[in-house]
Amino acid sequence: MSDDPYKVLGVKKDATAEEIQKAYRSLAKKLHPDLNPSNKQAEEQFKVVSAAYDLLSDPQKRARFDRGEIDASGQERPQHRFYRDFADTAEHPYASSEGFSDFAEENLFSDLFRRDGHINIKMRGQDVHYRLPIEFLEAINGAIRRITLSDGSTVDVTIPAGARDGQLLRLAGKGGVGIGGGPPGDAFVEINVKPHPYFRRKGDDIHVELPVSLGEAVLGGKIAVPTTSGTVTMTVPKNSNTGTVLRLRGKGILRPDGTRGDEYITLRVVLPEAPDPELEAFVSRWGAGKEHNPRRAMEA
Amino acid sequence: MLDIEEFVVRAELTSDVVETWIEAGWLRPRRSERGAAFSAIDIARAQLIRDLKEDLGVNDEGIPIILDLVDQMHGLRRALRELCESVGVQPTDLKQRILAEVRRRRPILPNSSRADQSS
């Protein structure tokens, strides 16, 4: 540190006090370690410059130096720690995260690095539950239903084909509002499937009890059968009794893998609604009919 | 922790000046039963304020602006360093992907616009 202080500051030997101060300020602004935290050389250079200024800004010391009584060494300021040396102190009372508080696009950075002492209460909003009654066929075939949420907004809920009674549909972010910038909760919609007048669901299959006339039961033939996806034609074999179960393959419920369950049709033979003289006459003449005892197994 | 008398000696200031700086919010010592309690950080900050005022000719209006910016810069530098360190411990391919993405976002500056590093 024995550089000529005049050279260090870049002033002439006969510089005035103002010139010396001006020269020092312009160097110090450039070199002050706290204004150059990433520049390691700045600290050494700043010390040299400061020492030179200490010497030349004191008229007595400057005069002694000019007379050669003292040299430039030993005039360094006492060792001091710069403010920047504390920048990484864990409990820094002046620490500021304002420099990135607006990096909110992802919330990631500002949340991650925020370390101000404020207790930041940040909570996810509450989940809200709703109950949505739907028709049997809506559940089987899928549907879109518009529902009104508790905050008055509406949302279109997609009911997947094959939805089950009690199934929960999650509407992400449609629950309660988050606290302190926390994410909103979710809405859960519980599906309540109303019963159908004649279709019943068992697993992935549809069961239906199908009335057939005496003629259809005895002689067989093509009949129209309701399915959950519309009416189809099915052949009833000759002599089909009540309780006969017929299967319509692939007319059941859509499975997640794209296959479908079946529809099972249980026949129920139904007599004409009004008494029919011709039928009565026939049955009274029908010998084999009198021999037939369907209750034989019941020992009645 | 230093009380105000010790602090005044170590920071080479008068107690009037220290009181003024506390009032202005430039210094924020902790509060204890015995009054203000100063740390080594406060000494260094006081030294910075003194350098700014006495050596660099910054006026009283400029001091809080500079202090605030310096504190913000420290926070940014720290966050950036932590981020760099966190990236640094990632597997090489992930590291490369992140660095490539950072590079992609940075325009290539001509040499003339680099910061002047001459001393």
Helix content of chain B: 55-70%
CATH topology of the largest domain in chain A: HSP40/DNAj peptide-binding domain
Provide the structure class of chain A.
alpha+beta
Structurally, the number of domains of chain A stands at: 3
**Tally of domains of chain B:** 2
Side-by-side strand order of the widest sheet of chain A: 6-7-11-10
SSE run of chain B = HHEEHHH
Q: What characteristic shape of chain A results from the CA principal axes?
A: rod-shaped
CATH class of the largest domain in chain B: Mainly Alpha
Mean pLDDT of chain A: 84
- Count of beta strands of chain A: 11
Major sheet attributes of chain A = 4 strands, mixed
Rg of chain B, alpha carbons:
21 Å
Mean pLDDT of chain B: 83
SS content category of chain B: mainly alpha
Query: Major sheet of chain B: order of its strands?
Result: 1-2
Order of helices and strands of chain A: HHHHHEHEEEEEEHEEEEHH
How far apart, in Å, are the first and last alpha carbons of chain A?
127 Å
Proportion of strand residues of chain A: 15-25%
What is the element layout, followed by pairings?
The complex is a heterodimer of chains A (about 300) and B (about 120).
Chain A: H1 5-9, H2 17-31, H3 40-57, H4 59-66, H5 108-113, E1 128-134, H6 136-141, E2 143-148, E3 154-159, E4 168-171, E5 187-193, E6 199-202, E7 205-213, H7 214-219, E8 221-227, E9 230-236, E10 245-248, E11 263-270, H8 277-285, H9 287-291
Parallel strand pairs in A: 1-5, 7-11
Antiparallel strand pairs in A: 2-3, 4-5, 6-7, 8-9, 10-11
Helix pairs in contact in A: 2-3
Chain B: H1 4-11, H2 15-23, E1 30-32, E2 35-37, H3 40-55, H4 62-88, H5 92-105
Antiparallel strand pairs in B: 1-2
Give a description of the structure:
The complex is a heterodimer of chains A (300) and B (119). In chain A, a hairpin with a 5-residue loop joins strand 2 and strand 3 (154-159). Chain A has 3 domains: 5-86, DnaJ domain (Helix Hairpins, Orthogonal Bundle); 128-193, HSP40/DNAj peptide-binding domain, CATH 2.60.260; 199-291, HSP40/DNAj peptide-binding domain (Sandwich), CATH 2.60.260. Chain A has 300 residues and is an alpha+beta fold. Chain A starts with a helix and ends in a 9-residue tail after the last helix. Chain A has 9 helices and 11 strands. Chain B has 2 domains: 4-60, Orthogonal Bundle (Multidrug-efflux Transporter Regulator, Chain: A, Domain 2), CATH 1.10.1660.10; 68-106. Chain B contains 5 helices and 2 strands. Chain B has helices spanning 4-11, 15-23, 40-55, 62-88, 92-105, and strands at 30-32, 35-37. In chain B, a hairpin with a 2-residue loop joins strand 1 (30-32) and strand 2 (35-37). Chain A binds chain B through residues 24-25, 28-29, 32, 34-35, 37-38, 41, 45, 50, 53, 80-89, 92-100, 109, 112-113, and chain B through 28, 30, 39-45, 47-48, 51, 55-57, 66-68, 70-79, 82-83, 119.
